[in-house]
Amino acid sequence: MSAPTIGRAGRCARCCKPSSRPAARAALRPGGRFLLEILSITEVMTRNPKTTRADRLAAETVQLMRSLKINGLFVVDDDNRVLGALNMHDLFRAGVI
User: Fold this and answer.
1) Going residue by residue through the chain (97 aa), what tens digit of pLDDT does each one get?
2) Phi, psi dihedral angles at 61 (to 5 degrees)
3) 18 alpha-carbon distance from chain centroid
4) If you count Cβ atoms within 10 Å of the first and of the last residue's Cβ in the chain, which end, N or C, has fewer?
5) Which of 8, 32, 67, 40 is nearest to 18 (CA)?
6) How far is Cα of residue 36 from the mean position of the Cα atoms in its chain?
7) How many domains would you assign to the chain?
């Protein structure tokens, strides 16, 4: 799961997801210098990460994750402050899916 960048007043602003960025993928190429050693988080992060609310039903969240083809979301409150992170593995462990 990607780590959130917390913006003003503790609100979820961005998340780092290096495997989805071309520059970060280039770092995995054989024979090249490890770009991950010189890239900043700003260059590889995902802007406006997907979130869900804590009061949403688990089944609705599973549907959302499937429709977006993602395996994790940040859980936020009404002010978009990060409360935690939710991953498909959490849902498996809870017996939701």
Assistant:
1) 455 555 656 666 555 554 555 655 555 555 555 666 677 888 778 888 899 999 999 999 999 999 999 999 999 999 999 999 999 999 999 998 8
2) -70, -40
3) 10
4) C
5) 40
6) 18
7) 1
What is d(CA 47, CA 83) in angstroms, rounded to the nearest whole number?
18
Only one residue has tokens 């988080």, namely 41
Q: What is the pTM of this model?
A: 0.60
3-state secondary structure of 43: helix
**CATH number (domain holding residue 8):** 3.10.580.10
The domain of 81 spans 3-93
- Degrees to nearest 5, angle at CA 60 with 56 and 66: 130
